[in-house]
Input
Amino acid sequence: MGQGKGNIGLAMLLCLAPAAWAGGPSGCDSIAAVAPFTQFNYPLTIQSVWNNNCDGCHVGGSAGGLSLSAPASELNLINVPSLQNPAFTRVVPGDPVGSLLFLKINCDDPGLGGRMPMGSTLSTTQQRLIFDWIANGAPLVSNGFEDR
Output
């Protein structure tokens, strides 16, 4: 991800959403005020979001056919089509707005199903972490200096 790209407003990015979203997502949170993340350690940062918020329902593929339990939850996300509608990909590396996972944690109406986690919301900081992780190619580990 080039410099400055992480500061693009989410509203502008949603205009670029794929055609699979008839009418596009709506009721999305702004993450623009949260500083971009550049360092990622999937097992420690991203997996901890799933452990603390998601794997109560998304264990063993019981909810939506998606397991977010460790280890290897990323294998159920990256470039994997949704079981509800294969036109939606759970995580498209480099494209958070084209990733159903981000839309489901960021928007009240993501275009398929509802906001997750059910009955709650992730903080805008957690949403930004997931957005930036996807935008940076959904790496398992990144120290933030790869583009320099």
